[in-house]
Design brief:
This protein is elongated. It has helices at residues 4-12, 73-76, 108-126; strands spanning 21-23, 26-29, 36-42, 50-51, 53-60, 64-72, 90-93, 96-99. It has one domain. The chain is α+β, with helices and mostly antiparallel strands. The strands form 2 sheets. It has a 5-stranded antiparallel β-sheet with strand order 1-2-3-5-6. A 3-stranded antiparallel β-sheet has the order 4-7-8. The chain contains 3 helices and 8 strands.
């Protein structure tokens, strides 16, 4: 069986370079700082099988977690609205993950903001 979460995440983050290594709902983003690890995790808090965004955790390999930030789909995505619905989340249904009713017009803006956040923080820690 295909790993549906991995496919969903790879498609959402398709513009990233370097590529994120995905493991189900969590991915590892390589950085230029050998002491820093960046984890990106699809939100799975709240209602079962509903996903509202991504948690970004920046970790120091020796000292542990430095910071975590949550990027909510609703705050960063432009969605096509169907019948005036304001839903902005993914869901796992019938063995696959997909968008619930409304679909994002483009994930680039959200992904760019997440990558900028990570890059700025890693750059600050390098100094």
């Amino acid at each position: 069986m295909e790993n549906t979460f991995e496919t969903f995440n790879k498609n959402f983050f398709s513009i990233t370079k370097p590529k994120i290594q995905w493991f189900d709902k969590m991915g590892i983003l390589p950085t230029n700082n050998t002491n820093i690890v960046v984890e990106i995790k699809l939100d799975d808090v709240g209602h079962k099988d509903n996903f509202n965004g991504y948690h970004i955790s920046i970790l120091h390999k020796v000292n542990g977690k430095i910071i975590t930030h949550f990027f909510k789909f609703k705050d960063y995505l432009t969605m096509t609205k169907i019948d005036g619905c304001d839903y902005c989340h993914g869901w796992f249904n019938n063995g696959k993950i997909d968008w619930y009713i409304n679909r994002p017009t483009n994930s680039r803006e959200m992904v760019s903001k997440m990558l900028d956040y990570i890059e700025n923080f890693v750059e600050i820690k390098r100094k």
